[in-house]
């Protein structure tokens, strides 16, 4: 059970970092 939680948390953090990166790129494009 613990390993499942760890795996899901890793996936969530990866997804959040990817979304954050895309969001920054979007802002950069709008500023330019």
UniProtKB/TrEMBL annotation:
It comes from the Eukaryota. This is Uncharacterized protein.
């Amino acid at each position: 059970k613990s390993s499942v939680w760890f795996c899901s948390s890793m996936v969530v953090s990866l997804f959040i970092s990817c979304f954050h990166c895309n969001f920054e790129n979007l802002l950069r494009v709008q500023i330019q």
